[in-house]
Recover the amino acids of this structure.
């Protein structure tokens, strides 16, 4: 008979912090799910509302405008009312948005519901990584903060799988009917389910100890710190350390971000640059438009959704690699590896798409050999993004800012990310009609710029306490 060793207090603490970090990261899951669920619905929306590339881009990207707004207000709201309140509000708004998007009577109404969902996602994209960074012990913070990106890529993959299943049940067409609705409507409506799960978890996980201390709820903060960092640490000293930092600061506002570098503190510009470059390499074009893209070059809608699903699986593999190494080799080396890999793979995609020829309407034809190269390069690009910038940016945005400005700076950086995401998303349909190859040349140039940014401006944060930042 095998006798199992009893679970140690340290193992229990680690399991507890893993659970609450994973629960908070469900905000990232909603981010990923919303990012990719529209991928399968694009052709259905175009056909149902009879809209062209410009309006399609506006509908797809409308959620991102809401996300920028949600990100901008989330930091202040999280400081005033707590991290958990923002999580719960985000989940509730997303449920409402998903249900509304399922029954739109006009293209502008669908865009409006997506804006509401975008506000929810923007709020979650700020509060979830902030909460995880504040709850996680320093030794595990990189890996736990990586849960945000892992949840994003899982959300992308699950949404692609759900889209494929719904399309298959509707006869392989996104405009096929299923229980009285078109398949694309079900794709958007099913997104309410993970939001409900996020809401439930938001009701049971503990509040951030730093917010509790700031609110003078020291008994509760002591209990949370003991649960996540262990009772073997000097809890009084740990609380005193956080109190000392909080006493030396005031509630962060946008005024606190002012500095000599074009009106902002240099570290704020670093955060903005991280966010903008993460989007300007064009990653969300893959997740928003890939099914429509592959369908336009002659691949069936069902197989296009399968290709999108395979890309999502590569995304998960890359993210797991990043989680394995982010606390071992550090944030900066991973970012540099990814920047170089993305530059090369994006340049190859640009070359492959240069052989594309229009065959009438919006359809294009790519020779088989070039199409195969484009597919391999696209998967390689996603792999390099996932093992680097996909994880590193979310980890570092939760780390790099000093405590006194973290919430406000995080809100600005994430709002910049959503605006950059919107610019890429709204312009791609028109850019691809003009020159598919030219669009990817532009993304490869930004990937090359990210190499120089990492080398010159990015500083390692591995293993540092949040109170040491700044």
């Amino acid at each position: 008979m095998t006798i199992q060793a009893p679970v140690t207090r340290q193992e229990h603490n680690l399991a507890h912090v893993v659970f609450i970090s994973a629960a908070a990261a469900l905000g990232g899951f909603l981010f990923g799910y919303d990012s990719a669920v529209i991928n399968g619905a694009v052709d259905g929306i175009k056909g149902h509302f009879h809209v062209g590339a410009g309006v399609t881009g506006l509908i797809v990207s409308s959620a991102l405008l809401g996300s920028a707004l949600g990100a901008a207000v989330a930091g202040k709201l999280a400081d005033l009312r707590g991290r958990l309140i923002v999580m719960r509000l985000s989940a509730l708004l997303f449920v409402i948005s998903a249900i509304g998007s399922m029954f739109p009577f006009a293209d502008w109404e669908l865009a409006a519901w997506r804006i509401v969902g975008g506000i929810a996602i923007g709020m979650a994209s700020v509060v979830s990584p902030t909460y995880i960074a504040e709850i996680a012990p320093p030794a595990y913070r990189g890996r736990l903060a990586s849960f945000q990106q892992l949840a994003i890529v899982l959300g992308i993959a699950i949404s692609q799988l759900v889209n494929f299943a719904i399309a298959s049940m509707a006869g392989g067409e996104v405009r096929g009917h299923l229980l009285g609705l078109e398949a694309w409507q079900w794709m958007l409506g099913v997104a309410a389910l993970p939001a409900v799960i996020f809401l439930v978890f938001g009701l049971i996980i503990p509040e951030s100890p730093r917010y509790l201390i700031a609110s003078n709820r020291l008994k509760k903060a002591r209990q949370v710190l003991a649960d996540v960092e262990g009772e073997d640490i000097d809890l009084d000293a740990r609380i005193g350390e956080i109190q000392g930092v909080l006493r030396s600061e005031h509630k962060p506002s946008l005024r606190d971000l002012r500095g000599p570098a074009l009106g902002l503190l240099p570290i704020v510009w670093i955060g903005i640059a991280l966010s903008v470059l993460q989007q300007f390499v064009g990653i969300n074009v893959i997740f928003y438009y890939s099914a429509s893209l592959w369908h336009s070059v002659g691949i069936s809608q069902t197989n296009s959704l399968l290709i999108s699903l395979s890309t999502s699986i590569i995304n998960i593999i890359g993210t797991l690699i990043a989680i394995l190494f982010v606390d071992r080799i550090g944030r900066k080396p991973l970012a540099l590896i990814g920047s170089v890999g993305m530059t090369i793979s994006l340049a190859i995609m640009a070359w492959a798409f240069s052989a594309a020829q229009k065959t009438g309407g919006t359809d294009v034809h790519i020779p088989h050999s070039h199409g195969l190269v484009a597919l391999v390069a696209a998967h390689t690009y996603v792999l390099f993004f996932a093992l680097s910038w996909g994880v590193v940016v979310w980890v570092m945005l939760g780390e790099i800012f000093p405590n006194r400005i973290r919430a406000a700076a995080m809100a600005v950086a994430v709002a910049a990310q959503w605006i950059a995401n919107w610019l890429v998303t709204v312009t791609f349909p028109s850019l691809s009609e003009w020159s598919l190859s030219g669009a990817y040349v532009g993304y490869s140039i930004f990937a090359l710029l990210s190499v120089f940014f990492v080398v010159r401006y990015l500083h390692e944060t591995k293993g540092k306490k949040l109170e040491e930042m700044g």
